[in-house]
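Example (one chain per record):
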Amino acid sequence: MRARWGGMFSGLALAATCAAASAQNQPAPSRGQLLYSTHCIACHSSQVHWRDRRLATDWDTLKAQVRRWQSNMGLRWSDDDIVEVTRYLNDAIYRYPQSSDRKG
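Predicted structure:
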């Protein structure tokens, strides 16, 4: 019986080690992703970004929409925060060429 319990604990320890190693391989979320996940995702499903009549048609209009909505929500984001959320959305969904606010 002791060997059986030891084997189970060894298996659990191995599973925990593998899970921890897998989590370490995941890149940390960007500031833009964290801001979007915290403040925007409650109202915005991915479908809002794929609708036919979307207002964001390029980098600058996407950034303008991020600025507009953070203002509507009273979030008082800095210009850097707006750029980070715009960059996150652009990298994850839109893929517009960046005409301004290039990555440094």
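Caption: Helices lie at 2-25, 31-39, 46-50, 59-72, 79-94.
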